[in-house]
TrEMBL record:
Organism listed in the record: Oceanites oceanicus
Topology relative to the membrane: Multi-pass membrane protein
InterPro entries per record: Ig_E-set, IRK_C, K_chnl_inward-rec_Kir, K_chnl_inward-rec_Kir3.1, K_chnl_inward-rec_Kir_cyto, Kir_TM
Stored Gene3D superfamilies: 1.10.287.70, G protein-activated inward rectifier potassium channel 1
Protein name according to UniProt: G protein-activated inward rectifier potassium channel 1
GN (gene name): Kcnj3_1
Sorted UniProt keywords: Ion channel, Ion transport, Membrane, Potassium, Potassium transport, Transmembrane, Transmembrane helix, Transport, Voltage-gated channel
Region forming the signal peptide: none
Length: 321
C-alpha cells in the first residue's frame, strides 16, 4: 500500500503548517525571544552576525560623527588641543575605539577626555545598549544550544506496533528504549489515536483525537526507562479498537501518536520524543524478540533485535467478536 500522509512523522515532526494568519502574525513579534529560539540555526547565526555588525558600524559612526562635528579630525597634530577622544582621526580609528570600549580591552592609546560631555553621554548609551544586546542574543544562543531536542534523538521507538495476547487479553504493544546511560527522570508515556469520524449529528471530524489507555489508572504509564520497555494497551470494551479484527485492520485508516516525556537527568530540562504508527505498521499476531540477557555481573541490551518481531498464534477476531 502506498504510504499516506502522516499527522506526525516517525521522527516526531508534526506535519502541520499555519497559513493565512492575517493580523495574528504580529503575535510572533510580541514574543521575539521565543521566535528567535524557534528559528533554525542558520537564521539564528545570520541574525546574530547582522545585529552585531550593524550595531558596531552605527556606534562607530556616532563616535566618528562627534569627532567630525567638534573638528577633532582636522587638529590631529595640534598638541595644545584636547579632543573628545584621543588619537581618533578617521573612521577606522573610531571603530577601533568603539571595539576597545565594548570589549573592555583598553589598550590605552585611545581614551575619552573629560572635556567632551556628548562623548560621556554616548559612552553611557553604548554601555547600556551593549549590555542589552549581549544579554538578548547570547541568552538566545545559550537557550537554543541547551534545548533537549537532541536528547530526544537517543530515545528509540520500535518501527512497528504489534497485536497479540498477553495474560489472556488482546493487547496493542510497541517498544521504547533509551540509548544513553543517563536516565529520564519522571518519564511518562501517552498515546493518541488520530482517526476521522462522523458524529451522529452529521459533523465530520477529519483528525479526531482519542486517548489510548496505556496504564494511566494503574501507573504503568510512569516509566523506569533504564532498559527497553514494551508499552501495552489492553483492547477491551472501553478501547477504540474494541471492534478491530485482523480482517478489518486491512481496511482501517488511523494513526497512533506516541508521546514520551521526561526530565533530562543531566540538565533538568523537560524532553519530549514523539513517533507514530499507521495501520500499515501494526502487525497482527506478532511479538517482540527479547533484547535483555544476563552477563557476568550486569544485564546486556542487544539493540540489534530492538525492532525484531516473530509470529505467535493469535485469534484473528476482534474482542467484540
Amino acid at each position: 500500500r502506498r504510504e499516506r500522509q502522516r499527522f506526525v512523522d516517525k521522527n516526531g515532526r508534526c506535519n502541520v503548517q499555519h497559513g493565512n494568519l492575517g493580523g495574528e502574525s504580529s503575535r510572533y513579534l510580541s514574543d521575539l525571544f521565543t521566535t528567535l529560539v524557534d528559528l533554525k540555526w542558520r537564521w539564528n547565526l545570520l541574525i546574530f552576525l547582522l545585529t552585531y555588525t550593524v550595531a558596531w558600524l552605527v556606534m562607530a559612526s556616532m563616535w566618528w560623527g562627534i569627532a567630525y562635528l567638534r573638528g577633532d579630525l582636522h587638529r590631529v597634530h595640534d598638541d595644545t588641543y584636547s579632543p573628545c577622544v584621543a588619537n581618533v582621526y578617521n573612521f577606522p580609528s573610531a571603530f577601533l575605539f568603539f571595539i576597545e570600549t565594548e570589549a573592555t580591552i583598553g589598550y590605552g592609546h585611545r581614551y575619552i577626555t573629560e572635556r567632551c560631555p556628548e562623548g560621556i553621554v554616548l559612552f553611557l548609551f553604548q554601555s547600556l545598549l551593549g549590555s542589552i544586546v549581549d544579554a538578548f542574543l547570547i541568552g538566545c544562543m545559550f537557550i537554543k544550544m541547551s534545548q533537549p531536542k537532541k536528547r530526544a534523538e537517543t530515545l528509540m521507538f520500535s518501527r512497528a506496533a504489534v497485536v497479540s495476547q498477553r495474560d489472556g487479553k488482546l493487547c496493542l504493544m510497541f517498544r521504547v528504549g533509551n540509548l544513553r546511560n543517563s536516565h529520564m527522570v519522571s518519564a511518562q508515556i501517552r498515546c493518541k489515536l488520530i482517526k476521522s469520524r462522523q458524529t451522529p449529528e452529521g459533523e465530520f471530524l477529519p483528525l479526531d483525537q482519542c486517548e489510548l489507555d496505556v496504564g494511566f489508572g494503574t501507573g504503568a504509564d510512569q516509566l523506569f526507562l533504564v532498559s527497553p520497555l514494551t508499552i501495552c494497551h489492553e483492547i477491551n470494551s472501553k478501547s477504540p479498537f474494541f471492534c478491530l479484527s485482523q480482517r478489518s485492520l486491512r481496511s482501517e485508516q488511523f494513526e497512533i501518536v506516541v508521546i514520551l516525556e521526561g526530565i533530562v537527568e543531566t540538565t533538568g530540562m523537560t524532553c519530549q520524543a514523539r513517533t507514530s504508527y499507521t495501520e500499515d505498521e501494526v502487525l497482527w499476531g506478532h511479538r517482540f524478540l527479547p533484547v535483555m540477557s544476563l552477563e557476568d555481573g550486569f544485564f546486556r541490551v542487544d539493540y540489534s533485535q530492538f525492532h525484531a518481531t516473530f509470529e505467535v498464534p493469535t485469534p484473528p477476531y476482534s474482542v467484540k467478536e
